Amino acid sequence: MRRSRLAVVVIAGLAAALPATRPSAHGDVTPQPVDTTELEPLGEDWREQNPYSGNALAIRIGSSGYNQNCARCHGLEVISGGLAPDLRYLEKGREGDEWFLQRVRHGATQNGITRMPAFEGVLSQEALWSIRAFIESKHEG
């Protein structure tokens, strides 16, 4: 009993010594670039549907982009640990593409707290659609 009481006191002391910070989406993580030079360029206007859906090269590039920029919150291999939505269940096709595009371009806030940062202007359209192609390849439904 004495040992567990000591542990509680030590943990409480450590908790009190740490700065009171509120976790935020991505914290201090810097988005990592995604090399899309091998993919067909998509131009300036955003596509409404994923032009890389089912494209093996895009899926490979998207896997790297996802693991560097998304896995921290959405989980390795698109298997969420509960911090963020499990993207394996994001609908395939137009409806899923619309939701994905809205979320990655503009991000999401809830009660003034950023839950997901906006990636438009941070990652290219090619990078984001290749990430979507990778996510789609892991779909479970």
Could you characterize what this model shows?
This protein is mainly α and 141 residues long. The protein is built from five helices and two strands. The chain has a two-stranded antiparallel ribbon with strand order 1-2. A hairpin with a 2-residue loop joins strand 1 (108-110) and strand 2 (113-116). Helix 2 packs across helix 5 (125-137). The longest helix has 16 residues, at 2-17. The chain starts with a helix and ends with a helix.
Brief overview:
The protein has 141 residues and is mainly α. It has helices spanning 2-17, 56-69, 71-74, 93-106, 125-137, and strands at residues 108-110, 113-116.
Distance between the termini: 49 Å
What integer value in Å does the Rg equal?
Answer: 19 Å
Helix content: 40-55%
The backbone outline, from C-alpha atoms, is: globular
CATH architecture of the domain at 47-141: Orthogonal Bundle
Order of strands, main sheet, comes to 1-2
Task: Give the biggest beta sheet.
Answer: 2 strands, antiparallel
The CATH class label of the domain at 47-141 is Mainly Alpha
Number of strands: 2
Structural class: mainly alpha
Average pLDDT for all residues: 85
Say which CATH homologous superfamily of the domain at 47-141 is assigned. Cytochrome c-like domain
Low-confidence stretches: 6-26
- The proportion of residues in beta strands is under 5%
Number of separate helices: 5
CATH topology annotation of the domain at 47-141:
Cytochrome Bc1 Complex, Chain D, domain 2
Order of helices and strands: HHHHEEH
Organism: Paracraurococcus lichenis
Protein name: Cytochrome c-550 PedF
Signal peptide: 1-27
Keywords: Electron transport, Heme, Iron, Metal-binding, Signal, Transport
